[in-house]
Amino acid sequence: MSSRAASIARPDRSGRYLLGALLALPFIYVAVFYAYPIYKVVALSLRDYQIAYGIDDWVGLDNYATLLSDAETWLTIARTLLYTAICVSVSFGLGLGMALLTVALADAFAERYGRIFRHIVIAPMIFVPAAAGVMWAFAYTEHYGWVNHILLALGLPAYPWLVSDAAFFLVMVTDIWGWTPFIYLILLAALQSLPQEPIEAARVDGANAWQVFRYVTLPLLKPVIVIALTIKTLDTYRAFDYLWIMTKGGPGTSSTTLNLATYKTAFQSLTFGNASALAVITMIFPLAVMILLLVLRRRQTP
């Protein structure tokens, strides 16, 4: 009788253990796939690790000193920031403009016109970056690409686009082509969900279309704009697919960004110490963006 009562009174702790295991899984995931790789990269950046020559020596901050004293490193940093700034600003401008045009078409004509325009705009999202890079690289080839076929049909000479000074610009055009639909969809969804009362009130007060957009629509869109710009900025900063597939960082190093430089240093030069130091330098900008966002969010929180 007493043993039966004890068995009934004993609490079942299996649910607690299961909950603890489930809560631990995200921490394990972060530790294995984020924390440890970052630790390993930082540790390697302090060593002269050249796998091809069997060299593995502690050098402290020498790798950083070597990189930061090289003018090419600073050119690569500037090129990366330029690539990011142009792609983000143009993608955002085009995405916002087309989102506003879609809403205007739907309001002025019919919803189906806005829907048709939307389908045309988001067509580039069908292609993954690797496939889009191959497609556009082939389009710009000197002898077989359709771009040069058009030039020849117009009586103009073919041009070696991807081995010229225009290569870096063409990769940016491809990035903008591929990412503008993403910005467009985010802003279009935000525009279509805005409350209409402030907009109607501004129109009743005599505000024109520009004033309504500037003083009513844009402030209401601000949180969504910040999110869209953050996602686009971080993704563009770490861009690799288009650059590697279309130019491999060339001609020379004219389209080499920090990610490409890190890849080349690690897997072509096999100097993993320098590559790790370059990877640590590459992480500074995303960390700065995250810290800035946290500071801005704290200031906005009452």
Describe what this molecule looks like in 3D.
- Belongs to the binding-protein-dependent transport system permease family.
- Residues 77-293 form the ABC transmembrane type-1 domain.
- The chain crosses the membrane at residues 17-39, 81-104, 116-139, 166-191, 212-231, 275-296.
- With 302 residues, this protein is an all-alpha fold.
- The protein has a domain at 71-252: MetI-like fold (Orthogonal Bundle), CATH 1.10.3720.
- It is 74% helix and 3% strand.
- The chain is built from 13 helices and 2 strands.
- Helix 4 runs antiparallel to helix 5 and helix 12 (258-267) packs antiparallel against helix 13.
- The mean pLDDT is 87.
Features:
302 residues; mainly alpha; two-stranded antiparallel ribbon; 74% helix; globular
CATH class of the domain at 71-252: Mainly Alpha
Q: Using the CA coordinates, give the radius of gyration.
A: 26 Å
In the CATH classification, which architecture of the domain at 71-252 applies? Orthogonal Bundle
Q: Which sequence of SSEs, written as H and E, runs from N to C?
A: HHEEHHHHHHHHHHH
Structural class: mainly alpha
Shape: globular
User: How many distinct helices?
Assistant: 13
Summarize the main sheet: 2 strands, antiparallel
Poorly predicted spans: none
Task: Calculate the terminal CA-CA distance, rounded to whole Å.
Answer: 61 Å
Q: Tally of extended strands?
A: 2
Helix content: over 70%
The H-level CATH homologous superfamily of the domain at 71-252, spelled out, is MetI-like
* Portion in beta strands: under 5%
Mean pLDDT: 87
Largest sheet: spatial strand order: 1-2
Main location: membrane
Keywords: Cell membrane, Membrane, Transmembrane, Transmembrane helix, Transport
InterPro entries: MetI-like (IPR000515), MetI-like_sf (IPR035906), UgpAE/MalFG_permease (IPR050809)
Subcellular location: Cell membrane
